[in-house]
Amino acid sequence: FWNEFGKSIKLGIIEDATNRNRLAKLLRFESTKSDGKLTSLDQYISRMKSGQKDIFYITGTSKEQLEKSPFLERLKKKNYEVIFFTDPVDEYLMQYLMDYEGKQFQNVSKEGLKIGKEKNKELKESFKELTKWWKNALAGDNVDEVKVSNRLDNTPCVVVTSKYGWSANMERIMQSQTLSDSSKQAYMRGKRILEINPRHPIIKDLRERVAKDSEDEGVKQTAQLIYQTALMESGFNLPDPKDFASRIYSSVKSSLNISPDATIEDDDDVEETEIESETKESAGKDEL
């Protein structure tokens, strides 16, 4: 039934405001707790943890990709269920389906995620200097804010979007459309927020290095590389892949103890080609 009529039901939810909730009961999807089977919103609500107010979901290209998403780390650790939406139409669907049975929907890749009670005020304060410095260092990358995250466990950082802006998945969908409006894309892209994991050794070490010398170019380069890696892992397309590759190669040079001023050997083939062309020119003149 769902394979045959699923897309029609989703389009009905988008277009028919009167019957939206009735149609939403028919929605089927996989989740972190459905064991590869389809489940419903009513079944999801029946499994919600005590005190959980929102229905958590994430959008992407496949279930396999989403299962590895850093956005799920802390939610899975705390045993929260997250819905997988992998159909491109799901992005449009969730712009219209704002709530169900009194529960709000929360995209876990966007700002505003609340997981239980916040207990990290002192932790946030201890990273205040780093987050302020990092925001200034990323001034040219349209990063609106850098802040301590409550959604990470094993990953150093992620890039989230504003609540009403496009997700990384929606950006990819819109960019792939031939007749997409670039000015609308810039407006709907919304702000980007870099969220850092204060318990991760990379972030803790970076904080110490910034405290020692905030003007160190090496530290700035490292911070930029970490951000670009987080951007890619969070599902965004890199605006300048060449710049990212250059930073990776610089990092590899450093790890191999190669001098940053090391030059590339000249190619002997260039000289041979020039000699061959000169020989052909002189031979042509002799024939004349």
UniProtKB/TrEMBL annotation:
Keywords annotated in UniProt: Chaperone
Signal peptide feature range: none
Acidic residues biased stretches: 263-276
Region (Disordered): 257-288
Gene Ontology molecular functions: ATP binding; ATP hydrolysis activity; ATP-dependent protein folding chaperone; unfolded protein binding
SUPFAM superfamilies given in the database record: HSP90 C-terminal domain, Ribosomal protein S5 domain 2-like
InterPro entries, alphabetized: HSP90_C, Hsp90_fam, Ribosomal_Su5_D2-typ_SF
Keyword Transferase: no
Segments of skewed composition (Basic and acidic residues): 277-288
Similarity comment: Belongs to the heat shock protein 90 family.
Name of the molecule in the record: Heat shock protein 90
